[in-house]
Design goal:
Layout (H helix, E strand, L loop, with lengths): L12 H53 L2 E10 L15 E3 L4 E6 L12 E2 H4 L3 E3 L20 E3 L3 E13 L16 E11 L2 E8 L15 E3 L4 E4 L4 E3 L1 E6 L4 E10 L2 E10 L12
Parallel strand pairs: 2-11, 3-4
Antiparallel strand pairs: 1-3, 1-7, 5-6, 7-8, 7-13, 8-9, 9-10, 11-12, 13-14, 14-15
InterPro entries: N_methyl_site
Protein name: Prepilin-type N-terminal cleavage/methylation domain-containing protein
Keywords: Membrane, Transmembrane, Transmembrane helix
């Protein structure tokens, strides 16, 4: 028997077309997968960026507040202890609640005749006695038919914090014309302003005035990623919410950030180091 070797004619046209089609599908699948992975990675990076920025901001505020010798809190409250859930992907939303301005100081720091500033000791952080309203935009009491009624406020949406605290003194930063006190410490006053998406931190020193930062300006912006909303009566409500426990010298600070449809919510419990910051010493 004579065996004939089968000639290798190579790929037929049909086989070649099928092979190209399969290869194209594989390439498309790989590109699609890589594209999806790239989008996911970018989203994760953006989320991490907002989270890190938020954590850095919270740490800075906490480091200032924890050293406080004097602390003034200004902001807005909602009745019934309402807490607004900020949208992590959108800023500046409308809040269907009316907000009321409040201001807190330690009792001994409130000037005589000031009927608008609340003190932590008598008013606590949540109980406001009912009787009559006071002048201005601030609310100290609740108007109602029941004179014994109380309204509970707990969550304060910050508009401003004023913190006085001690810092190490360095004569290299002594201001012109100021006598060197030879002190171990200087006194710093930090004014932290919450205005829409921005948090401003302005610091002024008693002696080291060369370190002073001035006013609400681009130079004092610490972050531009804070969320915020607008109340039904037109008040800007920052996503910086604080609750105060005056008896334990403790504050809980909650910050909600949103930037380019990415968001983060961060919280910290701050235990003030110094005594009698929120409540005067007992005589």
């Amino acid at each position: 028997m004579i065996l004939k070797a089968k000639k290798n004619k190579g790929f037929t046209l049909v086989e070649l077309i099928v092979a190209i089609a399969v290869l194209a599908l594989l390439i498309t699948a790989v590109v699609t997968f890589m594209g999806h992975e790239s989008v996911t990675l970018k989203k994760q990076e953006a989320d991490i960026s907002v989270q890190n920025s938020g954590q850095e901001t919270l740490n800075e505020l906490s480091d200032i507040i924890i050293q406080a010798k004097e602390l003034t809190i200004e902001g807005y409250v909602f009745e019934d202890n309402y807490v607004y859930a900020f949208n992590k992907k959108k800023v500046g939303e409308s809040i269907a609640k009316s907000a009321t301005a409040v201001k807190y100081q330690r009792k001994s720091l409130i000037p005589g005749g000031d009927s608008t500033t609340l003190n932590y000791e008598d008013n606590g952080y949540k109980h406001f006695p009912a009787s009559a309203t006071v002048s201005g935009d601030y609310l100290k009491t609740k108007v109602g038919d029941d004179p014994s009624a109380t309204v509970t406020y707990k969550n304060i949406y910050l508009s401003k914090l004023t913190v006085k605290y001690s810092v190490p003194y360095d004569s290299n930063y002594l201001g012109t014309g100021i006598t060197d006190p030879g002190n171990v410490n200087d006194e710093c006053t930090a004014i932290i302003t919450f205005n829409q998406e921005k948090i401003y931190i302005e610091k002024t020193y008693k002696y080291m005035t060369k370190l002073n930062s001035s006013g609400v300006s681009d130079n004092t912006v610490y972050t531009s990623k804070l969320n915020y909303g607008t109340s039904s009566n037109g008040k800007i409500i920052s996503a910086a919410r604080i609750t105060v426990d005056p008896l334990n010298q403790s504050l809980s600070l909650n910050l909600d950030f949103a930037y380019q449809k990415h968001g983060a919510s961060i919280q910290n419990i701050i235990n003030i180091k110094n005594s009698n910051v929120l409540i005067d010493p007992k005589e």
